[in-house]
Amino acid sequence: MIAGTGILLALGLFLYASSWHPRDRGYPIQGIDVSHHQGAIDWKRIKRQGVDFAYIKATEGADHRDRLFAANLKASAAAGIPRGAYHFFTLCRSGAEQAANFIAAVPRNRRLLPPVVDLEFGGNCAARPGRDALLKELNAFLARVEAHAGRHAILYLTREFEAAYAVSAAIDRPLWLRSLVTAPAYGARPWTLWQASNFRRLRGISGRVDWNVVAADCDFLARREACSGPRDRRRSPA
User: Fold this and answer.
1) What CATH code is assigned to 2-232?
2) Which of 71, 133, 194, 201 could form a disulfide with 129 if both were Cys (CB 3.0 to 4.6 A apart)?
3) Catalytic residue among 33, 52, 60, 225
């Protein structure tokens, strides 16, 4: 009896976690970020489940390209989902080399959402450069990628990476912060994007997927620009 109750409780928690997301009323714009780890995606099907936008992994480091990036970019466009590309920044290659990789993979297209640079220790190389060295390479990356995209990039920062390098205090860019379930409480300014879950499950995607929301006072999709703080969180004219 006790074992059966434990199994039912675990199943209930799993089902709750796999469907939980911040309320639409508080955060009307919600979406996902994906890579080849999600496999083939039925983009039209997931759009019907409240996916308002998607960020798709394009590149990593100086020489890796996500094998499903081009297919995901094309299929999400066909489904009418606003989408953008992100780059996983490695700590053991130069910013210029990594920017060249991203630029070669991602088309110059003003309809895309702002580019994102993913800054985290998980899955990164063992190198741990000093703060000045890291900021130098990151600025080199941003200068090239932003010139290509024609807009500011977004910084995706985990709490651990931000604690180690205080990137948001040194580089004034919109923030995408990760904090499961509760809203992020770190970073040098208000966040534009919040990664709220890494356990969402949707029909049309095999396995779990990251779920994100946009700050309620930022009309992100209409602007095609991220909001850096309250002063920039104005709505576009109708």
Assistant:
1) 3.20.20.80
2) 133
3) 33
